[in-house]
Amino acid sequence: MPVSATNTATAVEDFDALIIGAGMAGLCALYRLRQIGLSVHALETAPDVGGVWYWNRYPGARFDSESYTYCYSFSRDLLDDWNWQERFAAQPEVLAYLNHVADRFDLRRHIDFETPVVSARYRQQDGTWLVETEAGKQIRCRFLVTATGPLAVSRFPEIEGFEDFGGECYHTGRWPHRGVVLAGKRVGIIGTGASGVQVIQTIAADVDRLTVFQRTPTYCIPQRNGPLDEGEREDIRRNYGHIFARCRDSFAGFIHSFDPRSGLEVSEQERQAKFEELWQQPGFAFWFGNFIDLMMDPTVNEYACEFLRGKIMERVRDPETARKLLPDHPFGTKRVPLENGYYEVYNRDNVELVDLRETPIQRITSGGIRTTSADYPLDVIICATGFDAVTGSLAKIDIRGLGDQSLSDKWRQGPKTCLGLQVAGFPNLFTLAGPHNAASLCNAVRCTEQNVDWVADCILYMRNQGYTRVVATAEAEADWTQHVNEVAGMTLLDTMTESWFYSAKQPGQERHVLVYAGGANTFRKRCDEEARRSYPGFEFS
Ligand code: N01
Q1: Does 502 fall in a domain?
Q2: pTM, whole model, 2 decimals?
Q3: Measured distance between the N- and C-terminal CA atoms of the chain, rounded to whole angstroms
Q4: Residue 197 CA: which ligand 1 atom is closest?
Q5: Strand 368-371 to strand 375-377: parallel, antiparallel, or no bridges (unpaired)?
Q6: What CATH code is carried by the domain that includes residue 111?
């Protein structure tokens, strides 16, 4: 199976497998594919490892997953020698962890940094992929594994006048590494998703004035972060097996599992008690530990919404500001931000909330932001406006499969995939955390490890059977794509709520679901079943 060694005559490097990206998924793939004996290499745009954790250095960036669940499980020694400092680690600790992994397993020597990939073409004549970098370097590989990240391509809002602004302007997803001084400045922030919430609650006390430009309020639940002491760390180390098993069996790869009861079968008093108990717990307990039909039954969901709106009203002193913060979409149909004192920020004298649904932004001016009702003078504008999610980082690469078909063209009417891991017409291409894959609606590490294991097992199967080419069949792709859409349609995700779970980037565009809403546990079983039955949805040769 190995492709031949470096071919100096044509200056094309050859590897069995090439990974695009050296973030959380890419490092994992590098480790695992090397472990099964492949010659493997990775190309990374950034100057170092880490992916989103390399780029997202904005104030307050931290895990929304319990630290001890968002770490690799492939090495017992690694689990033993890393000491998580907080229940939900902050970005510097996460990045330090990923650097530690890269060093501990000697992964860096397989990575070319500052090497963006521009194209990848499948060559039918020899069944390899030819990958070209921005600098013109060519690499040939048997297997191409994309680990480009579902939230990697930052999106600035399409608002007129950015070029006129005389102050500083940053996107959370590309925060400057030199750091940014915000203390004493007039700061405006656009966007109140998970990134915006983390920034807002972190900087409010330091800046002179903070103006929050909010288009859609969303439900934030308390993170209840705190330091881990040595006793807790010891406990965690002893229980890693149990922790990972809980995550594996859960809907979204977290330690939280749905209550098997319907929210309709309990009394009002029991329901409120359950909500309160979940609200007091750290992390995503309120989302993924709630009643089993929270994301399916609009009445149950609305009970949860009412409870959370009540909490917002209690915490925000000014009733008019509180009203602006009240969401009206079903809970969980946008990714739920975890917060530490977010709502109390709006009780500060130096913080103002601007509701863009009432007074939209007209333009950016040289001195700040102009809405339909006022001019807001600013020194700094922070865009926490999200990403071209899930397919954005793949669309940046000209990926061409059989018959020179472009992946972007194929997905123009929405992604089509088999298990979110392969695409018909694109042999030997594996898309880690790609569209239709459980990994985007999941604790990322738990789910990408599953993706990587599945890919490694598939390649091992090929090796044992003497195959060099695998490709999803058109039927299996159609079945999975239909299933992904049907499952989303059975949940409240399929409301008209705008979120990155769906592909519509602008109001009015056709929507296609990008995530798998059937649950990480179901997804895993489906993938395992496919392997156990010798991959009936795939063609080998
Ligand atoms: O991006 P988002 P994010 N004018 O797309 C607003 C992960 N993450 O970076 O809701 C005005 O969620 C937009 O408004 P609306 C996590 O998976 C993880 O915050 O579209 N506003 C929204 O408020 C998360 O879901 C962690 O109306 C505009 C915001 O910008 C994902 O990353 C931490 C606008 C975008 O929210 C993305 O989160 C942080 C415009 N033109 C993030 N355009 C951890 O777990 C957009 N908005 C550590």
Answers
A1: no
A2: 0.96
A3: 12
A4: 19
A5: antiparallel
A6: 3.50.50.60
What is the number of residues in the chain? 541
- Sorted by sequence, the CB contacts under 8 Å of residue 49 that are 6+ apart come out as 22, 23, 27, 98, 99, 102, 107, 108, 111
- Residue numbers of the domain that contains 117: 12-153+389-472+532-540
Q: Please state, in angstroms and rounded to a whole number, the distance separating the CA atoms of residues 395 and 72.
A: 28
Q: Measured between alpha carbons, how far is 302 from 495 in angstroms, rounded to an integer?
A: 13
- Nearest-atom number in ligand 1 for the CA of 172 is 9
Q: Whose CA is nearest to atom 41 of ligand 1?
A: 157
Successive 10-residue mean pLDDT values, the chain, 541 residues: 46 95 98 98 98 98 96 96 96 98 98 98 97 98 98 96 98 95 98 98 98 98 97 96 96 96 98 98 97 97 98 98 97 97 98 98 98 98 96 97 97 95 98 94 94 98 98 98 95 86 72 94 97 98 97
How far is ligand 1, taken at its centre, from the CA of residue 380, in Å? 19
Q: Are 329 and 497 in contact (CB under 8 A)?
A: yes
Instruction: Give the burial class of 130: count Cβ atoms within 10 A of its Cβ; 0-12 exposed, 13-18 middle, 19 or more buried.
Output: middle
Q: How many CB atoms lie within 10 A of CB 124?
A: 13
Residue 482 lies in a domain: no
Angle between helices 520-532 and 444-465 (to 10 degrees): 10
Instruction: Could you list the beta-strand ranges (E) of 378-536.
Output: 380-383, 398-400, 429-431, 470-472
Q: How far is the CA of 190 from the centre of ligand 1 (A)?
A: 9
